[in-house]
Design a protein that fits this description.
- With 77 residues, the chain is α+β, with helices and mostly antiparallel strands.
- β3 (52-58) and β4 (67-73) form a beta hairpin.
- It has one domain.
- 25% of the residues lie in helices and 30% in strands.
- The protein has a four-stranded antiparallel β-sheet.
């Protein structure tokens, strides 16, 4: 995790996702094409009531069991 106080954001880098990694280890298993999308839903639902967003999710390395997402404080209206 990296905290950037100037940008007011927390960058979380998953270097090796254990669940997606399981799929990669066993060639008999094939994950749903949007398997990693569950993290976007999970973190959004957990953080939104606390006043944060986690909508910036980089899944470009998902085929290697890696991802990055950014947590930010919600902007005041």
């Amino acid at each position: 995790m990296e905290l950037d106080e100037e940008k007011e954001e927390l960058k979380i880098t998953m270097h090796h996702c254990p669940s997606k990694g399981r799929f990669l280890k066993d060639p008999r298993l094939a994950p749903y094409h949007n398997y990693c999308g569950h993290c976007a839903v999970l973190y959004h639902r957990a953080l939104e009531p606390l006043g944060f967003t986690a909508n910036d999710l980089d899944l470009s390395q998902a085929d290697n069991a890696r991802c990055v997402f950014i947590v930010r404080r919600k902007k005041s209206k």
